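Quick check before the chapter quiz. The format below is the same one you will see on the exam, so make sure you can read both the input and the output lines.
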Amino acid sequence: MEATAKSPKMLNEKTKAILTSVKEYILITFGVALYVTAWKALLLPYTIVGGAATGISAIVFFITENLFGEGHGIPIWLTFLIINTVLLIMAIKTLGLKFCIRTIYGVILMTLLFRFMPQAEIGQFVSETDSLLACILGGVMCGVGLGITYTNQGSTGGTDIIAWIVNKYRTIPLGRILLYCDVVIISTSYFIGNGVTPIIYGLVNMAVLSFSVDMYMNGVRQSVQFFIFSHKYEEIADRINQEAHRGVTLLDGTGWYSKQPIKVITVLVRKGESGRIFKLVKDIDPNAFVSQSAAAGVYGQGFDKIRSK
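Here is the expected output.
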């Protein structure tokens, strides 16, 4: 009887998990498509490279085209597939198949898009002489595409896999490993044959991409933490609950100078809601002492979901 009573709830949770997973895969698909579109429409026509496995593939393509003639370069999709196949085999042995499922999906999808998505002609979207604009727009599109992919627990493989493997055995931050890899990859674009110009554009593209990823993943999700010291703590706490619809916690404190007990209000809100909190406090107690600080991450009800990855 107990198992029967629980089964509808378990079925409902399973259905919800499946729908969530489907939604994430759809968003990963969109993110990867946006990333590849940036390369095909803006970066490749202007001989701009970037980091990761895509950057290596682009460099190989440009160098082989210079050697064998236009139209005879090693296709980007082929180099990308070879690199990621080797890295995925290493990752599956080191990290396990379950950890790599979404990366495998991302790699296959990106390979197919690079293979079948047509490449734009130079000047089709921005002026033929405006390589810098193409570099910046391409970096923004790549960054947003990767941001969408990462926030849905996806991956495009490449240097991400190297970073995971190194991080498992060494206490080196993932971001630092990725930075080192990307700088080395972009530096090799010198051999394309245009001097240091590809390196400069590659570094600009990398900077814009990194900024765009951070802005997408953290900009709208940034939260702040308030500590509010006021003798009118009850009224302030009630107003925050009722008007800002945020939970409030009261902490017991002691003023060291006065040696008097005091209640401290602590509340976490989205960064965009901080103005409302200041207004509430000022309306009730203009002499209140308020401390605001950025929260690196807030997870749970009313904020972001706790993720295992």
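If your answer matched, good. Strands lie at 223-229, 249-254, 261-270, 289-295.
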